[in-house]
Amino acid sequence: EQKELKEARQQKELEEARQQKAAKPVAATVTTTAEQSGDKPLSKSAQRKLREKKRKLKLRQQKIQQKEAALLRARQKLAEAKANFAEEQAKLAAENPHGHAADRLIFAQYDPDAAYAEALKGIAAGEKDGRAYGVAAHCCLLGDSSLKDDEEADRLARLGGDDLVARTVLGSLRMWGYASFSRGATDVPPLTEEAVDFHPLPGFYWGLTFESGMGGFAQNFRRAAKFFQRSAVQGNAFSKCNLGALYRDGCGVDQHYPKAIALFREAAELGMARAESYLGRAYWVGQGVPQDYHLSYQWYSSAAAKGYLNAIFNLSSCYLTGLGVAKDVARGLTLIRDAAEKGHPLAQFKLGVSYMDGELVTLDYKQARYWLTLSAAQGTPEAQDTLTFLTIKEHTFGPNGEYDVDTVTLSKYDTDDI
Predict the structure, then answer these.
(1) Sequential DSSP letters for 77-112
(2) How many CB atoms lie within 10 A of CB 403?
């Protein structure tokens, strides 16, 4: 609708410009003719041409008016449909309180654990509209790492029947080729754009699809930004955060740090840990906001308290450097180890290097190799390079670093082969 309205307005402006341009030569001709021959009227040929121009202009203006009227009717129809949908949802929420409370917890406040727990209450209570199943399925698909389970998302979404959220999850699973659809299932239709304006979840999933280039769709940040925008205006914290990241990085939209920071704040106010971590990073480096290590520490602390691994790892830097908070090496090391044990690749790399160099911890090549191998397995390029260097150190200083470098002859080692 917005695209058609924009085209109609552009066409109207173009026609007005053409009309003004066409009118100027005519006026000049009339003036010149009048000056030379005493108000002599236009020739019949000129009059015919002028009438034809007016007729075509009138037809174009009528088409523009028809398009604008059609767009207005479409908007009114959409507004009526949304009002009817909202009324229907209000009735369903009264009859199925747990499922719709879970909906608000995940899409308006972004608390996946609480939303999942509330959805399970709705399932246990036998709520019939399917929203509890749909929200639980979404939590398993994209809610939180502790809940992530594509197969369970598939099972729950199928039990949700015709519920909008359940159908959206199931359609996305098919489009992305997850769970049963990775094994050839085709018993449900793929995700469509029909419900984007009725609930924040479809727009969010479409945004993810184009942002990541999933489901056979080419990566398209511009389209991703448009879908995230349509979802964000409905209050979805995840879409606000993702849209903010696109503005921060200049992907699909013009880079605009103030817009990015505003969107991160909105998502953080809704309780999203990732948005809080993004704000912590912005204050740490002074990107879009004045550099402020203490505010960075506060945002990282809030996100870390919610279990967000990037924030836990970044918070360790605050304690190790003493920026934004009193220096506490022991606390920093504890945070690194916590993030590493929970699977954060950079924390695993940092811990491995610490064991290899004997910094923060006692030198231990076995521990170093253990953590660096875990980090390398997750694709950290520096980890693989460091493992090569660790091999050299083991040959040089012994398996536990017990040799004195002055007593070792290095010429027998070909470091290129190693």
Answers:
(1) HHHHHHHHHHHHHHHHHHHSHHHHHHHHHHHTS--H
(2) 14
Distances in Å between the alpha carbon of 375 and those of 43, 307, 343, 359, 382?
86, 20, 8, 18, 9
Question: What whole-number distance in Å separates Cα of residue 2 and Cα of residue 226?
Answer: 12
Of the candidates 197, 198, 222, the one whose C-alpha atom is nearest the C-alpha of residue 211 is 222
**Roughly how many angstroms between the first and final C-alpha of the chain, as a whole number?**
63
Q: Which two tokens stand for residue 368?
A: 């170093």
Q: Percent of the chain scored above 90 by pLDDT?
A: 53
Average pLDDT estimate for 92-98: 89
Q: Which residue has the tokens 């199931």?
A: 170
What is the model's pTM?
0.74
Confidence of residue 204 (pLDDT cuts 50, 70, 90): very high
Which one, of 175, 233, 234, lies nearest residue 209 by Cα? 175
Mean pLDDT lowest among 60-64, 109-113, 230-234: 109-113
The predicted-structure confidence for 241-273, as pLDDT tens digits, reads as follows: 999 999 999 999 999 999 999 999 999 998 899
Instruction: Give me the helices (H) in 110-220, please.
Output: 112-124, 131-138, 150-159, 164-176, 200-212
C-alpha–C-alpha distance, residues 176 and 93, integer Å: 30
